[in-house]
Amino acid sequence: MYSYRLNILGFPGHPDSDKVPYNLGLLDQRLALEWLHDNIQNFGGDPEKITISGYSAGGASVDYLSYAFPDDPIAWAFIPESGTTTGFGSKTKRQAADAWYSVSETLGCGDSAANPDDMLQCLREKDVDEILAAIPASDGLGAIQGAFTPTIDNKLVYADAKYDTLSPAARPVLIGTTNDEANFFRALASIKGSDAGDDVWERMTETVFTCPAALRANRSLNHEVPVWRYRYFGDFPNTVLTDDPPSGAWHGSQNLVIFGLSSLTGVPDTEAEVDIAKWMRGAWAAFAKDPSRGLADYGWPLYNPSGDTLARIGFGNETGGNFGLGGEYDSGCRKTVAVTATPILPDSPEATADEV
After folding, report:
1. How far is residue 74's CA from residue 83's CA, in Å, rounded to a whole number?
2. Are 91 and 149 a contacting pair, CB within 8 Å?
3. Which CATH number among 3.40.50.1820, 3.30.1300.10, 3.10.290.10, 3.40.50.360 corresponds to the domain 175-356?
4. 3-state secondary structure of 266
5. Cβ-proximal residues to 163 (8 Å cutoff; 6+ apart), any chain
6. In the chain, what are the domain boundaries?
7. Do 55 and 81 form a contact (C-beta atoms < 8 A)?
8. Which of 4, 197, 258, 356 could form a disulfide with 28 if both were Cys (CB 3.0 to 4.6 A apart)?
9. For 301-315, what is each residue's pLDDT tens digit?
């Protein structure tokens, strides 16, 4: 476990990014990964077998790191869950600066007309609680779309379109989303007395989560990198957020199941829930142990958008692996990248040394 800087402390928008880099939070994560690589043997680990996983903003972080350090990723595998480089949208330099000026002006340190160095010194003399209190309130999307989030610097973070021209680290990927991602945010909006309606939330699930995951999976496939993809459907009595409308498999609900946290609700797990959690833990462990072949040996086919390779976890609350068409839920995506490569498992008879 490790901490990294968030908000204005981790993703500042100071107008002079040479003096105050934009994406300090991502550099914190990279530094933690370097420390882990250098010290993991002291804890019985293997520095050449590190898998990094993250959920939501953490999933996006995992994906950012896979592109930011393609030649030296340190990790031998990536698991971005419900979060990618292109899902939540990265701030432009102008957007980041506007957020910075808003905080600076609120604290009496000047606006866009002020000297950047004087502004920075003034902010450094403020108490951290004062600074955090001056940040505009988020709309409920918090770390993923707040005022201070990853900003395009063309070093660690790129504009969405740029990722079409970049190659991610050639490391296996396990990627997926839940079936009703946006219903978590819908529940938050309902608490505030606001609900945009079914169509808006369904479109959010599609454009922010499903389609970016499809895009990322297809990019790995086109680079002949092993990739596995899932969609989580589990909907159990102890993971329900709202009954009207039904919350379904909302953003983050799979974590309650896979980590055994659903019992915190006081409602016991169903038998299916226990079995599904066991299957998921087995799958994630198989991938971490052998990212290139572990899931294939577990009975999970290598991702192919035209084959029955999408693991529909908890589909109908059924146990075990249930596989549907890889691109089954991508029909509404404006952009997913056409797949031109044929999926090949490393060490299979067709694989070459370069592909391994």
Report:
1. 20
2. yes
3. 3.40.50.1820
4. coil
5. 67, 85, 86, 219
6. 1-171, 175-356
7. yes
8. 4
9. 999 999 999 999 999
